[in-house]
Amino acid sequence: MKVSLISLGCPKNQVAAEQMLAALSAAGHEITSDPAEAEAVVVNTCAFIEDAKQEAIDTLLEAAELKNGRLKTLLCAGCLAQLYGGEVMAELPEVDGVVGVGSCDKIAAALESAARGERPVYMDPNDAPVQEAERLVCTGPAWAYLLIAEGCDNRCSYCLIPSIRGPFRSRPVSAILEEARSLAARGYKEIILVAQDLTHYGADFKDGTDLAALLRELCAVDGLEWLRLHYLYPRELNDELIEVIASEPKIVKYLDIPIQHINDEILRKMNRRDRGADIRALLKKLRERIPGLVLRTSLITGLPGEGEAEFEELCEFLREARIERAGVFPLSPEEGTPAAKMPHVDTETARERAETVLSLQAEIMDEWESSLAGSVIEAMCDEYDPETGTARGRAYFDSPGVDGSVVFPGPCMPGSIVQLRVLSAEDGELRCELI
Length: 435
Known about the structure:
13 helices, six-stranded parallel β-sheet
């Protein structure tokens, strides 16, 4: 069959999508990027928050409209499938089968079953060891994700991830290194390490394995130029790990550290292990120990306990900390989470506060980017247009699909790392010249 896969949500979902594409291809199916050409469509869904669930449902319904043409089979995979199982087909009869997060290796079997007119539901346990599987990488020409662990043990009171993806399970060091070497051999220069909590890596092995040791081994892989880290939780960002990040030139000095809030009582209610003073001290230490560091975080407005004073405390912290990058989200009270049962502000107020923080962060980012004029930065070339002579890429502080970009006169080869002088900045795009 000709199959198209649509992947929604986070980088971990992207890795699962690439594994499913490889499995489908190995089973003899033809892959197409255009759903309108496909006989079967797989939607790899996210269900982290209500907006993500709605996007997943809308995407499934949009794909189902193609059944008036060539499309015969529609599968729902990933987090929405894991959360609701067979209920997905009961609520959306257009869907012909579901495949949970622990059953990606069964995607070809599910497709063939659905094509026979059956209604397959593949829901393997979500606490099994992380699957080792081939991937059909379909990100940039020179960068790829590398999953090092699955699941989460943090149990933040607003979050469904542990219920969907199960407890934290690390991949063996040997498997991660083997995949990293394979990616490097295929020309991928930048590897983005992903897990729900990178800093917890190896804790489940109980043999001393940790992220610092893994990073040292990854930095020794020939061909890899950049290692980027998504996501680091504050409590386990210890001195040894900070030293590795600071001293290894392949680790880009860009850290994504979700803090969610700064108020102590809100952090306590969210079951976060840090308090405001801990976060402030950590950020200060990181700035001192890692020259050129750029920070990214995620924040939630409207959390239980957030009144006007607590919200202003968050804004004042951001004015002081000058965090360069931030994702800001209004609280989505998810059914089944403790936070959903706690008193909190209405959705509209949470959204208004998110907009306020986004506006504040935009000012901070604009001021920081303007300060870069005249400086020299390291960047990776993602694409070059010989007709215009223009190259586009990302500075070390730009994560693909998340942050900004750099534009400069070429020539350059995709994947090459170049030195650029910043000329100007506007709306997240740096205009540069090639040195």
